[in-house]
Specification:
By secondary structure, the chain is an alpha/beta fold. It contains eight helices and eleven strands. It is globular.
Length: about 270
């Protein structure tokens, strides 16, 4: 039977990020993806036009129904948007995890800022991530901007990223994967901190590609690999290969003078990426 992996995330109508990207990733990696939708986002790569949150009780009911019906092996959270939704997700996950055997792994992608720079999380919700969601997590996967928001200072180098990871892991007592792709060097280097060990994952930075959803795809791939039973460093390594291939084999359309790029979640040779 395929492992079941739950994505708790927003709906991206352009299907490059959010729950749609998660489902593509989970399917490509041989798991059965299910979703609890937190909000509906009107967006295309480079632009977020509108966000409509789902009622927190509906978010919670989606999660409860899925845990009742499926043997959930892993969970990832993406865009949660508001304090009310974060509270509902934390309450329901804590309840569901207490009843599950074995307890599913939880990958938290603390979505705060879109690739376009548009804010995706209400300002008063960041504290609730720290207080309630992070303690439930197996792994937390912030990008550079989100790491800076969590620490309250900018990150400008790989050395500063390493220091940030050590600080965050000590502060929250869980593993962190800090993504360094936005440092814009010749390689995209990510650092996994597991409390005493640091694992480095690098791939060539691919210029000239303007996709969105790499963070969603990366965290979904990690959750899928954990759901299949891989240990954390191996799950991250395989996910890094997958997302690198999805970027390398990006898709592109031209319409009305606009170029739109997207990740290729079903690139045929991702096994050879990296």
């Amino acid at each position: 039977m395929l492992p079941v992996v739950l994505s708790i995330a927003g709906s991206d109508n352009s299907a490059g990020a959010g729950a749609q990207a998660d489902l593509k990733t989970m399917s490509a990696l041989g798991t059965y993806g299910v979703t609890a939708i937190t909000c509906v986002v009107a967006e295309v790569p480079g632009k977020v036009s509108a966000i409509q949150p789902i009622e927190p009780r509906i978010v919670a009911e989606q999660i409860r129904l899925l845990f009742d019906a499926f043997p959930i092996a892993a969970v990832k959270t993406g865009l949660l948007y508001s304090r009310a939704i974060i509270s509902a997700v934390c309450d329901t996950l804590a309840e569901s995890f207490a009843q599950a055997a074995p307890r599913p792994t939880l990958v938290v992608d603390p979505v705060m800022i879109a690739s376009s720079g548009d804010p995706l999380l209400q300002a008063d919700a960041i504290a609730l991530y720290r207080e309630r969601l992070f303690p439930l997590a197996t792994l937390i996967t912030p990008n550079l901007d989100e790491t800076a928001a969590l620490l309250g200072r900018p990150i400008g180098s790989l050395a500063e990223l390493r220091q940030a990871g050590e600080e965050l892991t000590a502060r929250f007592g869980t593993a962190f994967l800090l993504k360094g792709g936005h440092l814009r060097g010749p390689t995209a280097t990510d650092l996994l901190f597991t409390g005493g060990e640091v694992h480095e994952f690098s791939a060539p930075f691919i210029p000239g590609v303007s996709t969105h959803g790499t963070g969603c795809t990366f965290s979904a791939a990690i959750a899928a690999n954990l759901g299949k039973g891989l240990v954390l460093p191996a799950a991250v390594a395989e996910a890094k290969h997958f997302v690198t291939s999805a970027v390398t084999h990006f898709l592109r359309w031209e319409k009305n003078g606009r170029t739109t790029d997207a990740l290729h979640h079903f690139a045929p040779d991702f096994e050879d990426a990296g």
